[in-house]
Amino acid sequence: MNINIYYGGRGLIEDSTIYVIHKLTEVLEELRVNVTRYNLYEEKNGIAMLPKTLKEADGIILAVNVEWFGIGGFMQQFLDACWLYADKEHIGKLYMLPVVIATAGGEREAESYLIKAWEVLGGNVLDGIRAYVEDHVDFETNKAYGLMIEKYAEQLYKAVNQKAKMLPGSNFLLNRQLLKGSINDLTPQESEQLSVYVSDDTYVKKQKEDIEELAQIFKGMLSGKDEENEEILPKLIENYHSIKDTDVIYEITFSDSDKIITAEIKNGKLNCYYGKGSGSADVEVKLPLGVMKKVIAGNITMQMAFMSGELTAKGNISLLRTFDQAFPFKKAS
Questions:
Q1: Minimal CA–CA distance to 74: which of 55, 100, 99, 48?
Q2: What backbone phi and psi angles, to 5 degrees, belong to 60?
Q3: pLDDT tens digits, residue range 264-313?
Q4: Which of 55, 134, 149, 269 could form a disulfide with 23 if both were Cys (CB 3.0 to 4.6 A apart)?
Q5: Predicted structure pTM score
Q6: d(Cα 111, Cα 100) in Å, to the nearest integer?
Q7: With left for phi above 0 and alpha for psi between -120 and 50, is residue 267 left, alpha or beta?
Q8: What number of CA atoms fall less than 13 Å from residue 231's CA on the CB side?
Q9: What is the sign of the dihedral through the CA atoms of 185, 190, 194 and 196?
Q10: Does the pLDDT at position 173 exceed 60?
């Protein structure tokens, strides 16, 4: 028979949970049981892999120390890992003895939490050990308490050895409903392999590096578009040909970018900048950056792009001809 103990405390000398674990271990070993103890605080970097150790066990002991509230982070991580990666079919065959020792109250609530969690996972739960310990020396030297703890060890041995039947509870139904709706639709072997990846710092680090590399690639692609956008404004200013007695506002939006260029012409003077203008535009033009580059290169005019359907425009469409007169881009020879 194999019994695994999962200790969720911090390993402090004054933690009476450790005394209870030792007492249980002594009795079980006298009964020729192989007892393996996992201190979760020592296994904190590999907790995701611990559910696979359940396969070696016929029964388990979940032991926690309530120092202020709840079962503690290490045990919670272990239970989370069991939900994500453990073989639920095998858990259904395991008997769990909860051990909760409190130094600040709340032992009943913590025990109830362990019981419900294990039942939801599909396992069997035995009557557990719970106690409030004000003075760990008094508790650990009390012979009556020691005898009671020994009885619990014998109870665990008998339950596992005789495969004791448990009365059905509502948590069994809850377990089936939760498993049915679980997003982790993996085989036990796949779940176990996933737990190895999760606990592998090298693998996780490589994943983060790959994500960062992809982010940089996309960032570079976006910044490349921004750089191309930056070329448009100087070209407009450089190629502007003053038209007297003309007041018009052009708003140019690039469909494949978030950039907007506003070109205001007042009394023949150009004011060209990024963003929307303070007043309403006379013509709103929307086109891809590539089409605007063709206009700047002198391959087509703004009016020709509109006529061919390469851009859309709202407002006074006839002012597109004025744009071509104000910005007479010449094709490179």
A1: 48
A2: -135, 160
A3: 999 888 999 988 887 789 999 999 999 999 999 999 999 999 988 899 99
A4: 149
A5: 0.57
A6: 6
A7: left
A8: 13
A9: positive
A10: no
